[in-house]
Amino acid sequence: MRRFSLHAVRYLVLWMLLRCGRELVAAVPPGQSRNHGWYDYTAYTDCRGQPEPALYNGGILRFGNSDDPTGYRTTETGVFSPAFVVYNLNKTTMYTFSSWVKLEGASSALITARLALDNAGARCIGTVLARNDCWAFLKGGFVLDWPTQTSVIFFQNADKTPMKITVASGSLQPFTSDQWSMHQKDTIRKRRKRMATIHVADQQGGRVVGASVSVRQTAKDFPFGSAIASTILGNQAYQKWFVDRFNAAVFEDELKWYSTEPMSGQLRFDVPDQMLAFVRSHRVMVRGHNIFWENQDATPSWVKGLSPDDLRAAVNGRIQNLMTRYRGEFAHWDVNNEMLHYNFYEQRLGANASVEFFSVAQDADPLATLFMNEFNVIETCDDVSSTVDTYVAKLKDLRAGGAVLEGIGLEGHFLKPNIPLMRAVLDKLATLGLPIWFTEIDISNRYDAQTQAVYLEQVLREAYSHPAVTGVMLWTALHPNGCYQMCLTDWNLNNLPVGDVVDRLLQEWQTGQAAGPTDAHGAYSFSGFLGEYIVSVTYANSTSQATFSLSPGDETRHINIQI
Q1: Which CATH number applies to 223-232+245-412+421-441+461-474?
Q2: Which residue ranges does the record assign to the GH10 domain (predicted)?
Q3: 428 and 392 in contact (C-beta within 8 Å)?
Q4: What confidence tens digit (pLDDT) does each residue in 120-166 have?
Q5: How many CA atoms lie within 13 A of 281 on its CB side?
Q6: What Rg, from alpha-carbon coordinates, does the chain have?
Q7: Is 440 known to be catalytic?
Q8: Cis omega (within 30 of 0) on the bond before 343?
Q9: Which CATH architecture does the domain made up of 190-217+511-562 adopt?
Q10: Helical H segments across 372-448, by residue range
Q11: First and final CA of the chain: distance in angstroms?
Q12: CB 429 within 8 A of CB 388
């Protein structure tokens, strides 16, 4: 088979389109985009009989040969077709891309949308599990490190075999960095904060004008935490540093099977017991990680050689020993870790092994929320084992089999983050209506400390601002010799650049001291982050205090204080 360079392919596609009189795309300057900078969270994970209209009316894609409201449709045969040619893409602009995809011939396939740039290779910008009997929705995006004059967005079967692919309702929408940031801030205002009004009255119910009101946040509603290890035990400085910042924790290795039962029947829970006592004493919620790990390399050595019957007995004992001991203690459990990449248990116990794990875990601790947990779902679209649609399909299969699966865990071990893709993946996962947690965020140590800090801030701002995300955990357990990939501090608890980022964001995402006088109606209003508060009111020689909560809601929260 003849092979072409990516450069040749790009211009071959362009030549074919021009020859057929149907150049698919032109580009307009980002400042002239038609949505005035407002992002559309719309996404679909169900396959549909007809494609929906293009988001943003196609954005900067202009279709010259179709009046169809779903936009231009084409079917081509080949690895690299159909394609969109785009001009004058800008550096640092956030581009969000979407389209509907359908196959001809093959019943289903993983289809990748790729962007080929001037004199450069092609990058993945989105994926979809497409079928021949319905339309599937692809949503992704990209940011460029340099401007390009001519680029091609093309579709191909992930295994690169030729296949007929039909696309519809294509859309490419640019956002400036300021527009993207504006939308993040607006979402935070709507989802992470709430307006509150303090009404102050005297003993007779009369309004008190000019009273001094002071409001202080004492606890945050949004869980933001980090992994910890046994190194925190007995280390008072580390413990204080941790609880001064975080309201959530996860144990790095101490609950994993190879730690709690290194030899058959040799149970060791003394270390996790002590770690649990620490977090409990400081009102820190804690995730359970993990019951099983499908990776053979992370399986206890004594388990690997068991017969299927002995293995089944061992896994049932594992669940009972772990979850009976800690019933009601852990808010979440990652039941079968990284099952999209590995299959140690399912290979030996059958395809229903994971369903059985979830069912037994639910019976053992019905109050815990049970999670899938996976890497490279949110970090990239190049990993064919863990695309967003693959994750959704596995989750739906487990639930259809009877698993009580109520949480989406995204590890978040990032190289250079693709923020528009990250948001698009979250949009698709949000259609399932389940809580989404980032469970193990870090940035690869292949980057220098300052670059890690830049990338971490991008990831955290995007995670915190997305309305479907309900918790964030960093994978930054501290050891004398460092951390897995990224440390917030050195061993002496001096901040590293990523630690400065975390401290700054934690300050930004909490209500500072809100204070002021009551107005002519005896009221003082403020906008506060969700969580617990204490309010103090002083008037003349009298002072009154009260506590209240700001929980999620669109209406203003009203608090009445009598003085």
Answers
A1: 3.20.20.80
A2: 209-505
A3: yes
A4: 789 999 999 999 999 999 999 999 989 999 999 999 998 888 889 99
A5: 10
A6: 27
A7: yes
A8: no
A9: Sandwich (2.60)
A10: 388-400, 419-430
A11: 86
A12: yes
- 552 — pLDDT class (breaks 50, 70, 90): very high
Q: How far apart are CA 288 and CA 513, in angstroms?
A: 34
Q: Give the model confidence (pLDDT) of 330-353 as tens digits.
A: 999 999 999 999 999 999 999 999
Rounded to 5 degrees, what angle do the CA atoms 403, 409, 411 make?
A: 145
Angle at 207 between CA 534 and CA 557, to 5 degrees: 40
Q: Which tokens is 467 given?
A: 């309305």
Q: Is residue 242 within 8 Å of 250, Cβ to Cβ?
A: no
Residue type, 187: T
Which residue carries 């030996």 as its tokens? 348
Residue type, 69: P
Residue among 338, 440, 457, 462 flagged as catalytic? 440
Q: Where are the domains of the chain?
A: 55-177, 190-217+511-562, 223-232+245-412+421-441+461-474
Tokens matching residue 433: 């209506």
Instruction: Please give the CATH number for the structural domain made up of 55-177.
Output: 2.60.120.260
Exposure string over 505-543, b if 16+ CB within 10 A, otherwise e: beeebebeebeeebeeebbbbbebbbbebebebebeeee
0.85 exceeded by the pTM?
yes
